[in-house]
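quick one: magnesium ion bound model?
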Amino acid sequence: MSSLAAEPIITLDEVSRVYDLGKVQVPALNDVTLNVANGEFLAIVGPSGSGKSTMMNILGCLDRPTSGRYVLDGQPVDELDDDGLALVRSRSIGFVFQSYNLLPRTSALENVATPLMYQGVGRKERLRRAQSALERLGLGDRLHHIPSELSGGQQQRVGIARALVTEPALILADEPTGNLDSHSGAEVLELFGDLHALGRTIVLITHDGAVAAAADRAVHLRDGQIQEAVRE
Ligand SMILES: Nc1ncnc2c1ncn2[C@@H]1O[C@H](COP(=O)(O)OP(=O)(O)OP(=O)(O)O)[C@@H](O)[C@H]1O
Ligand SMILES: [Mg+2]
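yep, here:
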């Protein structure tokens, strides 16, 4: 349906997150309002302490806002309990981490197949889909390598294959090039560009303005507040 394409994947409506340390309250996000359209490639960029990880945790359904409303892919997330959050997380979000977070003594193929287990997909089908995701990322000849037998850039591509294998509504990447040299980092950003061209929705969180430039829109966080700047 064409009307679906216009629906935002993410709606944050006056979202705040205050960390309650008993004696002090630390406001980490203040009244953040943000829409991310289906198919958009958005960077959230800000200096240390600006609220990026707090934002990532909320967008990724790892944490709930203290106040405000968060709707992800049509689902009001702020109303869910922990089980509900976990379900939305595994169904709707593909995570890409700075340190890859791969299972160490496990092949690329099994690493990529793992998220499908939580969706009840049978083993044969899991491996078939994992292989196909790895092949799409140019790792068809590395299926049975374990992470320590792969370069950093290759490990991150395994991480991206794992994020894609469930066909999530949203790819959420937290400093995905932070551990890579500039060449591998550029390759990973190019890969995100390709995925975006294929219609994927990507939110990339970074402190690095040069990395943010790979996205088609950047939102700047300062002291837990958003300052939007649209580039052409
Ligand atoms: N669990 C917590 N308890 C209390 N305060 C916290 C907690 N986590 C973060 N904060 C505070 O909230 C603010 C935002 O922190 P956050 O970790 O989101 O920043 P960041 O942009 O990810 O920084 P960095 O680039 O250094 O990772 C900071 O002032 C931080 O001290
Ligand atoms: Mg952080």
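The mean pLDDT is 93.
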